[in-house]
């Protein structure tokens, strides 16, 4: 398992904004999950109108081959196949009247669909 932290390297595999970390930690705690062990799994799957889409779920612990990024108190787990597509991405959270939610800003995406839910590399 590869582990990176906000202070451990100049460029993290995935960057987490403070807003995203705060929201995810709040949701983890709402599920009574131990934030010292559990985390947010960020992954890429086939689907969406552009070919690939992002997925997120909470996991109790990382898999052996996951990259684990720890920033702002949040642990993010990324499997090796997904890291090929989202390495260098930023996970953000936006709230507001238009709808709240997590957003992945991915420098590897060459195009995305109109709704922003799927992408192509």
Automatic annotation (TrEMBL):
SUPFAM superfamilies: HesB-like domain (SSF89360). GO terms for biological process: iron-sulfur cluster assembly. Gene3D superfamilies: HesB-like domain (2.60.300.12). One of its GO terms (molecular function) is 4 iron, 4 sulfur cluster binding. PROSITE patterns: HESB. It holds the Pfam family Fe-S_biosyn. This is Heme biosynthesis protein HemY. It comes from Haloferax mediterranei (strain ATCC 33500 / DSM 1411 / JCM 8866 / NBRC 14739 / NCIMB 2177 / R-4) (Halobacterium mediterranei). The gene is iscA.
């Amino acid at each position: 398992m590869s582990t990176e932290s906000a202070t451990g390297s100049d460029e993290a595999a995935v960057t987490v904004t403070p807003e995203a970390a705060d929201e995810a930690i709040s949701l983890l705690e709402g599920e009574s999950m131990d934030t010292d062990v559990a985390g947010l799994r960020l992954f890429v799957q086939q689907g969406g109108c552009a070919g690939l889409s992002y997925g997120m779920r909470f996991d109790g612990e990382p898999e052996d081959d996951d990259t684990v990024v720890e920033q702002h108190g949040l642990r993010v787990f990324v499997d090796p196949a997904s890291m090929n597509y989202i390495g260098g991405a930023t996970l953000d959270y936006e709230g507001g009247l238009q709808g709240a939610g997590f957003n992945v800003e991915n420098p590897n995406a060459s195009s995305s669909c109109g709704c922003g839910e799927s992408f192509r590399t």
